[in-house]
Amino acid sequence: MTTIAKLNFLRKQAGLPMIRFDLIRLREEDIQDLRDAYAAMYEISDIALGDQRGYFALARGHGYDQDLCHDDDRTFLTWRRS
Question: Which pTM does this prediction carry?
Fold first, then answer.
């Protein structure tokens, strides 16, 4: 069976929008893919400061270390809230 990461990779290559899946319904293979992705982002942050693929570069986009995140703002992009 294809994992979510592989399915979204194929969709991206085909020019299709990627699918956002419910974390509660992830299978073990999908959870491992997610863990591997986070580990890779942390590693990029550790070895290549400023690389936009790293964890901290992505976190800054959400306001990390700048107090800019709007997750609790009910008027900010209701589809974005966790």
Answer: 0.58
